[in-house]
Amino acid sequence: MNRFSYSKPQQVSEALQQLSDTGRFIAGGTNLLDLMKENVARPSQLVDINALPLNKIETTQAGGLRIGALVKNSTVAYHPDVERVYPLLAHAILAGASAQLRNMASTGGNLLQRTRCYYFYDVGTPCNKREPGSGCGALEGQNRIHAILGHSEQCIAVHPSDMCVALAALEATVHVSGPSGNRSIPFADFHRLPGDTPHLDTNLAPDEIITAVELPPRGFAENFAYLKLRDRASYAFALVSVAAGLELNGTSIGAARIALGGVAHKPWRCPEVEAALIGKPATEESYRMAADALLQGAVGFEHNRFKIELARRAIVRALSEAAAGVNAQ
Amino acid sequence: MNATPVRQHRPEAESETHSISLLLNGKQVQLTVEPWTTLLDLLREHLNLTGTKKGCDHGQCGACTVLVNGTRINACLSLAVMQDGAEITTIEGLANGDQLHPMQAAFVEQDAFQCGYCTPGQICSAIGMIKEGKAKTRDEIREQMSGNLCRCGAYTNILAAIEQAMPACQGESRE
Ligand SMILES: Cc1cc2nc3c(=O)[nH]c(=O)nc-3n(C[C@H](O)[C@H](O)[C@H](O)COP(=O)(O)OP(=O)(O)OC[C@H]3O[C@@H](n4cnc5c(N)ncnc54)[C@H](O)[C@@H]3O)c2cc1C
Ligand code: FES
Ligand code: FES
Fold first, then answer.
1. pLDDT tens-place string over residues A26-37
2. Nearest ligand to the C-alpha of residue B157?
3. I need a surface site. Which of A214, A219, B88, B95 has the fewest CB within 10 A?
């Protein structure tokens, strides 16, 4: 690990003030320290944000839930309001990492965790995300875990989070603070596609801090599923994951949310596909139609073409499980 | 990336150390640490508490699991300086004199190890898991213990040991 200075401010304003251009915030440390040990990240300064007052889960006036950026992943997953209203979020979090890591990982850090692409991690290989202009090692290399949607010639990495897939489906909002004040970013606009700027994962500015994630009231608690497919049954990143939420009017679909993980540089959603499901019967045929539409334009690489069919089947299964209400308490 | 940096970090950072206090295995200790020392390296290299193991150093194996304020975490992915003021329990702090912690005793009785490298992490993790109170069935225990790998594949007996120690540990964490 490189040498760096360290400070632990008590207030958000202090934290923003202390952060230098080559410094970074540290929350749980589970992603940043890992990357520092690999020399992928070399900050000159760490600003420890764990003493900031961003550790609460509160009900909002709108009837939703506001989760402070420092609330641990395990605390979110087991919070009674999350279990009751947003079980989709609880299931997604508990499908990720291990109990120890979830005890350390923060809400803000989870959003900002970086890709697990082998070439991003290996400083001896080219990677446009790590070193703009150096090339993409994965394009012609080992690309089994890589993207099938929204990739560019510059980068085919995927965002590895499970929690974010549920937050995308639930249409969360990310609250941030910066030197010029506060702003809110809709979840769909938070993460970016790689395009020709793959070094930028998100639209958060380097001098901004995440303060909270807000959930709107609608939680899809009756009809939801988080389906995660991976190489072992636990403690592994998703090859493909699906967060599905439905509202049913008798046997037809009243509302639908579908977000995919493990397939793109950000959680993948198509609001048009979800809108097209409204009024359709809650049957496998409708789900297959939605899956085909969601995966339209999917392009695989040498080792990951299997993900296209895997995603198709996963979408159908997740929607079927959601409709059957098998996960509801 | 920014051509005109506004705020620079202080150059004296290279030699910076921080003073921290920990309640470590029941004893209050004052330490001076460099910011880049992980909690795991502090325990093993500076304090000679080598019971906590370094398997991967990347959060992938669980061998470094310790209890911080009663919660299980991976010591390899936390900085010592971030733990200022915390209560830390390692495998060395579990026994009461010569009397093993019920989880330690159960691991011995159930022969829940071969090489023993993962064992301190398994035991601390199991104690943390029971305190969390989310695992009741065998499948739930397996899932909740998935953050602790065992290269020797002693999983069957590890599960048996945890099941055996659970009632005694539950009594303890209620106190
Ligand atoms: C072995 C292993 C397996 C894993 N498996 C999974 C998995 O299956 N699914 C999954 O979803 N995740 C998985 N993870 C990733 C884990 O969820 C993330 O590492 C964690 O969520 C990051 O949170 P943190 O608080 O530790 O972040 P940190 O490491 O502290 O920070 C990460 C980044 O976010 C920045 N940051 C943190 N908080 C803020 C804030 N409030 N404002 C601005 N910037 C901030 C930091 O500067 C840093 O750049 C795994 C991790 C490991 C090590
Ligand atoms: S050494 Fe910490 S998880 Fe492997
Ligand atoms: S007993 Fe050898 S690694 Fe678990």
1. 999 999 999 999
2. 3
3. B95
From A199, which residue of chain B is nearest by alpha-carbon distance?
Answer: B1
**Parts of chain A belonging to CATH 3.30.390.50:** 224-324
A-proximal residues of B, 45-84, CB under 8 Å: 57-59, 62, 65, 71-74, 77-79, 81-82, 84
Q: Chain B partners of A4 at a C-beta cutoff of 8 Å?
A: 9, 13, 35-36
Cα gap A133→A285, rounded to integer Å:
45
Residue B174 pLDDT greater than 60, yes or no: no
Architecture of domain A224-324: 2-Layer Sandwich (3.30)
Q: What's the rounded Cα separation, in Å, for the pair A243 and A317?
A: 11
Closest CA to A165 of A272, A293, A269, A288: A269
List residues bridging with B79 in a β-sheet.
B38
Q: What is the ipTM of this complex?
A: 0.96
pLDDT, tens only, B93-117: 999 999 999 999 999 999 999 999 9
Residue A168's closest CA among A270, A98, A85? A270
The CATH architecture assigned to A5-50 reads: 2-Layer Sandwich (3.30)
For residues B168 and B109, the answer to whether their CB atoms sit within 8 Å is: no
What mean pLDDT is predicted for residues A260-272?
Answer: 98
Which among B82, B143, B147 has CB closest to A50?
B82
* Range list for CATH 3.30.43.10 in chain A: 5-50
pLDDT higher than 70, residue A79:
yes
Give residue B12's pLDDT band: very low, low, confident or very high (50, 70, 90). very low
SS3 state at A229: strand
Query: Does ligand 2 have an atom closer than 6 angstroms to the CB of B150?
Result: no
Q: Quick check: B133 pLDDT over 90?
A: yes
Please state the domain extents for chain B. Answer: 17-93, 102-170
The mean pLDDT value of chain A amounts to 98
By the CB < 8 Å criterion, does B143 face chain A? yes
Domain made up of B17-93: CATH architecture: Roll (3.10)
In the prediction, which pLDDT does B16 show? 85
A112 to chain B nearest CA, in Å?
A: 16
Say if CB A287 and CB A280 are below 8 A apart: no
The arithmetic mean of pLDDT across residues A99-122, rounded, is 98
The fold of the B102-170 domain, in CATH, is DNA polymerase; domain 1 (1.10.150)
